[in-house]
Amino acid sequence: MSRARITIDRDFTVAEVPRRIFGSFVEHMGRCVYTGIYEPGHPRADERGFRRDVMDLVKELGATVVRYPGGNFVSGYNWEDGVGPVADRPRRLDGAWHTLETNAFGLHEFVDWSREAGVEVMEAVNLGSRGVDAARELVEYANIPSGTRLSDLRRKNGHEDPFNIKLWCLGNEMDGPWQIGHKTAEEYGRLAQEAAKAMRFVDPDIELVACGSSNSGMPTFGAWEQTVLTHTYEQVDYVSLHAYYQEHDGDAGSFLASAVDMDYFIESVIATADAVRAKGKHKKHINLSFDEWNVWYTRPGDADSPEEVGKHGWREHPRVIEDKYNVTDAVVVGTFLNSLLRHGDRVKIANQAQLVNVIAPILSEENGPAWKQTIFHPFARMAELAHGQVLRLAVDSDKYSNAKFGDTDLVDVSATWNEETGRMALFLANRGLEEAAGVEVVLRGFDARQVIRADVLRVPDGADRFLINTQENPDAVGLTPLEGVKAAGGEVRATLPALSWTAIELEVVRS
Ligand code: AHR
Fold this sequence. Notes:
By secondary structure, the chain is α/β, with parallel strands linked by helices. Helices cover 25% and strands 29% of the residues. It has helices at 52-61, 107-117, 132-143, 149-156, 185-202, 223-232, 252-256, 258-279, 306-309, 327-342, 376-385, and strands at 2-16, 23-25, 65-68, 92-94, 99-101, 120-125, 167-170, 207-210, 238-245, 287-295, 347-353, 362-364, 370-372, 389-397, 399-402, 406-409, 411-418, 423-430, 437-444, 446-457, 480-481, 486-488, 491-496, 500-510. Residues 27, 29, 70-72, 172-173, 214, 292, 353-354 line the site of alpha-L-arabinofuranose.
């Protein structure tokens, strides 16, 4: 058995839990919207066409904020196409995903859906094929109460009250050559600065996210952030990060250590943003919006890969990247959430990409059921338990060696403490494929009173780490009670099964 010792001190906190890190993402891509969250005619759809079975799962997932409508899609999207009587909305070609977009679902539908789901809207503007004018007009349409052409048009279209959307993304992945309207850092930096200015003239209370790099492997990573933030520093509040990971060639050890790369990526963007701050003699800090992250298996030959989908003409909501997630993926997702939480002093927003069907925690079938993927479970439990303060941890874990990251901690952990409720939550992953991990948590300044709940996601008996949840067996992988967790005084002890993710909820008092 491997060993890990974790020390927690009540006085050492990172930040208040940024609840927006439990965000998700709905893009007009594949079957995320159509036959995902929206399917008029489905036996469980309400009168607006929202699937109630999916809605129930979204509520159980506990997402706090949802980014919309893309993604690559937004860079060719006219927001005006998605408002007004549905019968008058144009059918368009979406070049980003080679799809026929009916526009049956648009901004009003998304705002209604978000209110029902209890999530905040994070709206992206098109800085690919459109620009400053479309962006400021969208803010006027959404946020001005009445008395102007566009605010009155919103009222005429059925929403008397403004949407009051606070969070706005200035385009999407504008550094990527695949993006419609791809730009250099200079071009994008200036455009984002001017769009931000014009949007703020309409509504000074909005929060703005500038596009960072599409991923840390981009040749312009670092330089892009530096140039873009040099232009936009005073106009924006956040810079975005996107990252997707997958297991390559059966190298589970490296895949399980992917959060090491996420830590590094986050810390590199913080350093770059702070260097621009110093050089420009700015006062405020730019925070981070990790607004796309997940496991994504890029398999170009697969029928649902973007490359193959593109060969089949223009279709409505084809299946695109409907990855099926296994036990290993769920453990890795747990470590990503740990990384985001540990950086809660600077990562204030994060969105798992995406919400339904497209690399998603929820799957749904047209005219059929909806169910939870394995990765649903760590997200839902962390979104439920992570409240109060993120705690700073001293971790002394046994290590294992892997090809990509060298020596890596076997046990990965984050923790939160909610003084109001007297609850502490520990989120622990055991990356060891073969060995259980004995964990000792030393509490300083706390007295543990009892274990309220301890649940683990692990490889079920008789199965292997590739087990997934299916339509026929939707609960093959889930959370089950972890026996033997002991908490008393200043000490918590637990044994984490090999390849597992655990959440422990404790009652604690100050000591
Ligand atoms: O989430 C899928 C796609 O990944 C998004 O559209 C894009 O922003 C990213 O490359």
